[in-house]
Amino acid sequence: MNFDFNEEQYMFRDTVRDSLAEQFPIDLLRDGGDPVALEGELWSQLAELGLFGLMVPEDQGGLGLGMVDFALIAEEFGAALVPLTVTDTIAASLILAKFAGAAQADNLEKIASGDLRVAFAVYEKNGGYDPADFAAAIGADGALSGRKLLVAGADRADMLVVVARDASGALALYCVDAARIGVATARETALDITGDYHAVSFDKVLVSDADRIGGTDAAEFALDLLAAIAALGMVGIGGRMLDVTVAYVKERSQFGQPIGAFQAIKHRCANMAVDVNTARSGGYFAAWALASADKAEREWAVSMGKAKANRMAVHVMREAVQLHGGMGYTWEMALHFPYRRGRHLEVLYGSTEYHNERVLQATMAQLAAG
Amino acid sequence: MDFNYSAEEQAFRDEVRAWLASALPQGWGKTVFEPEDEDERAHFRIEWERKLYEGGWSGISWPKKYGGRGATLVEQGIFAEECARAQAPEGINVIGRNLAATTLMHHGNEAQRERYLPKILAAEEIWCQGFSEPNAGSDLASARCRAVADGDHFVVNGQKIWTSFAQYSQWCILLARTDQDAPKHKGLSFFLVDMKSPGVTIRPLTQISGEKEFNETFFEDVRVPKENLVGELNDGWRIAMTTLAYERGAEDALARQIRFKQELDLLIAQAQEVRLGAQRPIDDPAIRQRLAQSIVDLELMRMNCLREFSKAIKGEKPGPESSLMKLYWSHVAQDMADMAMEVLGPEALLMQGDPDTIARGRFPMAFMQSRAFTIYSGTSEIQRNIIAERVLGLPK
Q: Which residue among A144, A279, B65, B261 is the one 20 to 30 A from A251 at the CA level?
C-alpha cells in the first residue's frame, strides 16, 4: 500500500511543467491566437519530450509506462490547457496497446514519434452519457454509420477512435482512418475556445476486422480512461485557479490592505484548497484503478474521481472569477479560458449525476457481495 | 503507487480478523451491543482497550521499546479497518494515544516517554486535554490558566473547559501560562498533570446529545513537579501545535472514516428496508444522488488519509496541512448525518429505545453528535484561517 508517486514520476512532471510554462497558451489565446496553430507548435515540443510514447510499449518505440505515470502529466496538461487532441492521442496509445497490441504496432510507432493524431468520437446528440444509448452502429452491410459530437481536432486527425455497436448489436470500439470515404467533419461553435471541436458524420464508412480494437470491454475501458483523464485535467485547472487566485488576493488592495487579509476572502480560498486536495486524491486513485484494478473497482474509482472533480471544478472556478472581482469578468484577465475548458471536461465525460449513480450501483453491489 | 496489500500486510489483516472474532462476544454487533448507559459504556471501552493491549494490538506503529508493535502506518490503518468491519468498540483513551503520546514522542524527554507511553498503551492511564478555557476557545493562545514556579514544582491555577473523558482520566496534558509579560504565544508551557492531584475538580457538562462526555476542569493551587514540564519553558505553543496537528491529522481521520463508512453502509441498508409508502428511499432518484454523494465524499476522505500516510512514511512531519483533512471530514460527516435524517421518513425521528426506531436510533443520535465535528479541535473558521495563512500564505 502506497499512495504516492515516486521520484522519477515527480521529476518527469516537473520537466513537463517547466516546458509548458514557456508556452502557456492563455496569453496567446487572449491576444487572439488561434488554438489550432498553437497546438501545432506544442505538438512537436511534446513529441521531443517523448510524451506521446509515454504509454506506448518499448517494442514500438515508446517508454512503456502506464496510467499512474501519466496521472501527474494529465494534471499538468489540464493546468496548461493543452489541447484535447494531445490527451486523446496519448489515451489512444494505451487503448491500442492494451486491446489490439501487435495488430496496431505501426500506429503505435507513429503515435510514439508524434506522427499520428487521434481523436475520440464518442458522444452523440440525444445520446447522453450511457453508451447503451449511443446510436452509431455497424449496419448489416458491414459499414459504420452515425454522427458524433465534440470530437477534438477531428479535421486534422489521422485516426478516429469510435464507440459504436457492432453488427451483433454489442458495444465495440473501432479505429477508423479519418480519410476514409464517408467521414465528414464540421467545425462546431463550442463553449471551450481553447481548442476546436467538430461534429463527425460516418456515412456507411467501410470498416475491416483490423479496425476493430475490441468489444464492450474496450469501449467501456475507453470511456473510463477519458473520464479519468478529464478528472485529472480538472484537478490541474483547479490547482492552477487556486494558485492564480491566491496570488491575486495577496496583491489586490482595498480598504488599505490586501483583500487576502479579509476573512471573507481567506475562508473561500481555504475551501478551494480543501476541494482541490480532495479531488486530487480522487483523480490519482482513478488513475491507479485504470492501471491495476478489476473492472468493478475501476468503474467505481473512476466515477468517484470524476464526480468529485466535477463538483470541485464548478466550485473552484466560480470562486476564482468571483474573487477577482470585476477584473475576473474581463476577457483580458483570461480566467474564462480555464473556466470554459473546465466546464467542457466536466460536462462531456459524464455529469456528476451520471457518475454518482454509477458509484451507488457499484457500492450496493459491493455491499451485497459482503 | 500501489493500493494492493503485500503478502505480509494481508497476513497481518488475517491475523487481526481472527483475533477480533475470538475476542468479541458471540453475536457482537447483531444481538449483543455496547451498554446503553454512558458510564457503563465508558468502562466497557476501557476494558476493551486493555484487552487489545493484552492481545498485542495497541500502538501498532509505535516503537517496540515503548510497548508498541513497531509496524507501519499501513498496518495501523489495516487494524483500524478490521476493527470497524467487526464493529469493535471504540477506545476511550484517544487523547492518550493520539495526542499525549504523539506529542511526547516529538517533544518529551526519554524519562517522560518511558514513564508515560507504556501506560497509555496499556490503558492503565487514561488522558484528557486541558487546552480550551472559557475565554480562550478559538483564541487558544490567550489561555490564562497560570503555572508559577515554586521550588521543585509549578503551582497551577485556572479553569479548562471541554475536557472530554476527564472523569475517567488519570492524566491531563495542560497548556498553562508561565510568563505573563511575554506576547501571548510566547508565554505558554506544556505540562503533564496528575488528575488525582489535590486541587483538581471536575464538573460534567451535558452536551446537546444528552451525553456527558466533556467537563469543566478547575485547578486550584495544584502542585505539578517540574519534571512534568514538556520541552522548554514558554515553548508550549509550538508543542501544542504538534498536538493539534495530530488531533486534526490522518491517523485520527482514518479511524473516524471507518466509523462513518459503517454508518453510511447502515444507511444504505436501511434505505432498502424502510418504506416511504409504495417505494423505498433507494427507489427515489433524488435520494440515490444524495447517498452517492456521501459515498464519494467518504471514500475520498479515506484517500486523503492514505495520501497523508504515504507522506508520513516518507518522513514528512505533520503540519498545518492537517487542517485540510479536518475541515474536509468534519463537513462531509456532518452533511452525511444531516442527510440520514432526511431520507428515511418520519421514523428517522425516533431515538434508541423506541419500538418504532430505525437502526436503534443511530441516525438521530449521530445527527446530534455530528454538530460537534465542525467545532472541536478547532472550529471550521479557525481551520480556514490556518489553511489560508499557513498553507496558502495569505496575510494575517
A: A279
